[in-house]
Design a protein that fits this description.
Length: about 80
């Protein structure tokens, strides 16, 4: 198995073992990739949800209902929202 000789034919069992270990390694790496990606998306979604509502939003939109229909594009340095 570990003494690979290109001139000598390897057995079917060796080839199946190499295929199985390579497929298992690739499947494990794909699982790690998707799990870490899901955790990262969930962590950013929670942090975005927590910071999307601020007290300045509720105080500034008391007078008119037009600001509620617009999406917040970004926030200024003083905390006031900038709409699209």
């Amino acid at each position: 198995m570990f003494n690979f000789n290109p001139g000598k034919d390897s057995t079917m069992a060796d080839q199946m073992f190499m295929f199985a270990t390579m497929a298992g390694t690739m499947a494990a790496l794909a699982a790690v990739l998707f799990v870490s990606r899901g955790i990262r998306k969930r962590a950013t979604k929670v942090s975005n949800r927590g910071s999307s509502f601020s007290p300045s939003d509720s105080q500034s939109s008391k007078g008119s209902g037009t600001d509620k229909s617009k999406k917040v594009k970004r926030y200024n340095s003083d905390g006031t929202p900038v709409y699209e």
